[in-house]
Design a protein that fits this description.
single chain; alpha+beta; 3 domains; seven-stranded mixed β-sheet; two-stranded antiparallel ribbon; 11 helices; 9 strands; elongated
Length: 453
C-alpha cells in the first residue's frame, strides 16, 4: 500500500493540477495509488468526470470496493496498463487545452489487412459513430444562405449534407465504417489534442477552378476530424453531398428552382417584382473525401457518385484503395518530417547567426559607449580642475579684503559652490563601466525583462 502511494505521488508531481499535462502512465499510477475521490480532488474535478477521462485514455481503474478489500488484506488483481490504440488520447490536462506531443511516425501494416468473414456487418448493425448521430443532425438548423444542415454539436461524424440527403449519407457512412472495421481498420473521432487538420470541403459538383479570395465557408464543420487508422496511419474521412448550380426565380419571398417552380396566380395588372438568378442546390449524390490529417504530408482523394452509380456499390473497392493509400500517406508524412527537420535546422542556424551578429553589435556598442563616457569624464575632470583653481584663488584673495566685504564675498562664494555642486571627477570615474561591465549589465537587464514578460 505504501509503495503504491509513493509511486502515485511521484506521478502526481510529474504532472498535475489545473492546466498541467498528465500522461496515461501518470494517471494510471495515480488512480491505483489512492481512491478516485482523492485523485479527482487534486485536479478539482468530480470522480465521475475523472472516470470518463480514464475511459477516453484507455486507463484501467479499480472497481468498486477495491480499497475496502485492500484495507482488510484481501488479495486484489491490478491489471497492467494496455498499450494505447491508434487514436487513443495519450495526455490530459485540467485546463482542457491542446498540447503538442512528440509522436512516432505512422506506419502502415506490413501486409495488407484481410477482411474477417466472421465480423461481416449485418444490415441492422450500427457503427458507434453513427449510433445517435441522426438526432443531432436532423434539427431543422441549416447553414446561412444554404440548405446544408448545421447541428449545434461539434463532436460528430463528419457529414456535410442536406436534410433530404441525411439518411442516405448515414447509411453509406455506416456501411463504410463497418467494412473498414471488418478489415481491422479502426474508425474513430480524433482524440482531443491530436493536432489533426480537416481538409477544405468544396461541395460543388463542378469544383471551383480557383479559390475565392477571403472566402469563408458557411458549411458546418466538426470540432474534431473523423479518421480511419490503417495500422497507425490516420486517414481523414468526410462525406459530402454534392450541389449543382441551377436557375432560380424569386417567388413570394424565396428562391424556387425553375424546374420546380409552382404556378401561382397573380392579377393581370399586378407588377412583376420577380427575377431569376443562379443558385446552388443539393443533388442527393454523395462524395467521399479521404485525406491526410497530418500537415506534414498532404494527400487527398475523392470518390464521387454519378447518376448511374452510387457509392454503396463501391464500398469494397473504396476500402481496398484506402488501405493501399496508407503506405503512400506514411511516406509523404516521413518526407514532410524530414523536410521540417531540415527547415528547423536551417532556422536554428539562422538564429545562431543572428544572435552572433547581435552580440558583435552589442560588444561594439558597449566599447563605443565606454569610450565616449571616459572622454566625457576627462573633460569633466579638466573642468573640475579649473573650478577648483578658481575657488582656491578666490578664497586666497578674499583674505585680503576688508571685514564687511570679506563676509559678503565668502557668502557669495559658498552660494556658488552649492550651485556648482560636487566637482570631484573621481566619483564619476568610479561609476564608469568598462566594455565587459557594460555587456554584463545589459545581459542582466535583458534577463529581467524576459522574466517580467
Amino acid at each position: 500500500m505504501e509503495r503504491g502511494t509513493e509511486s502515485g505521488s511521484q506521478a502526481y508531481e510529474s504532472g498535475n493540477g489545473s492546466g498541467s499535462v498528465v500522461t496515461r502512465e501518470a494517471l494510471y499510477a495515480l488512480v491505483w495509488a489512492e481512491p478516485m475521490l482523492k485523485v479527482a480532488a487534486r485536479f478539482e474535478v468530480s470522480s465521475s468526470y475523472l472516470a470518463r477521462i480514464c475511459g477516453l485514455m484507455n486507463v484501467p481503474r479499480p472497481e468498486r470496493g477495491y480499497w475496502a478489500k485492500l484495507a482488510f488484506g484481501k488479495h486484489t488483481t491490478k491489471p497492467e496498463l494496455p498499450d494505447p490504440q491508434p487514436g487513443d488520447q495519450i495526455v490530459w490536462s485540467r485546463g482542457g487545452g491542446s498540447h503538442a506531443v512528440k509522436k512516432p511516425l505512422p506506419r502502415a501494416p506490413a501486409q495488407k489487412l484481410k477482411r474477417k468473414p466472421k465480423l461481416a456487418a449485418l444490415a441492422s448493425d450500427l457503427h458507434p459513430l453513427i449510433r445517435g448521430a441522426r438526432a443531432h443532425f436532423d434539427v431543422d438548423r441549416t447553414s446561412y444562405d444554404s440548405s446544408y444542415l448545421k447541428p449545434a454539436k461539434r463532436i460528430l461524424v463528419d457529414l456535410v449534407v442536406s436534410k433530404t440527403g441525411l439518411d442516405k449519407a448515414l447509411s453509406f457512412a455506416n456501411q463504410l465504417f463497418l467494412e473498414l472495421d471488418a478489415h481491422d481498420c479502426r474508425v474513430v473521432i480524433a482524440a482531443h489534442g491530436g493536432h489533426m487538420h480537416r481538409e477544405e470541403v468544396d461541395e460543388h459538383e463542378i469544383p471551383r477552378k480557383k479559390p475565392i479570395e477571403n472566402y469563408y465557408s458557411r458549411l458546418w464543420s466538426p470540432g474534431r476530424v473523423t479518421v480511419v487508422y490503417v495500422g497507425t496511419v490516420a486517414i481523414g474521412l468526410t462525406i459530402i453531398e454534392l450541389s449543382e448550380e441551377a436557375e432560380a426565380r424569386y417567388v413570394k419571398g424565396e428562391y424556387v428552382r425553375l424546374d420546380q417552380e409552382l404556378p401561382f396566380k397573380r392579377s393581370r395588372h399586378a407588377n412583376d417584382y420577380s427575377w431569376t438568378t443562379k443558385m446552388d442546390y443539393p443533388t442527393g449524390r454523395l462524395c467521399l473525401q479521404a485525406y491526410s490529417p497530418d500537415r506534414r504530408g498532404k494527400w487527398t482523394h475523392q470518390w464521387r457518385e454519378t447518376k448511374d452509380r452510387d457509392l454503396r456499390s463501391r464500398i469494397r473497392s473504396i476500402v481496398n484503395e484506402i488501405m493501399d493509400a496508407a503506405p503512400v500517406v506514411a511516406g509523404l508524412i516521413e518526407e514532410g518530417e524530414r523536410k521540417a527537420e531540415l527547415q528547423r535546422l536551417k532556422w536554428e542556424q539562422e538564429r545562431r547567426e543572428y544572435d552572433r551578429k547581435k552580440a558583435e553589435e552589442r560588444a561594439a556598442q558597449a566599447q563605443q559607449d565606454s569610450r565616449d563616457e571616459i572622454v566625457k569624464i576627462v573633460k569633466t575632470w579638466a573642468n573640475a580642475k579649473r573650478l577648483e583653481e578658481f575657488f582656491a584663488d578666490a578664497e586666497s584673495r578674499i583674505e585680503g579684503l576688508g571685514p564687511d566685504l570679506r563676509e559678503k564675498m565668502r557668502d557669495r562664494l559658498a552660494r556658488a559652490r552649492n550651485l556648482i555642486g560636487g566637482v570631484d571627477a573621481l566619483e564619476r570615474f568610479l561609476r564608469w563601466k568598462a566594455p565587459s561591465e557594460g555587456l554584463a549589465a545589459n545581459a542582466d537587464l535583458d534577463d529581467s525583462e524576459d522574466d517580467e514578460y
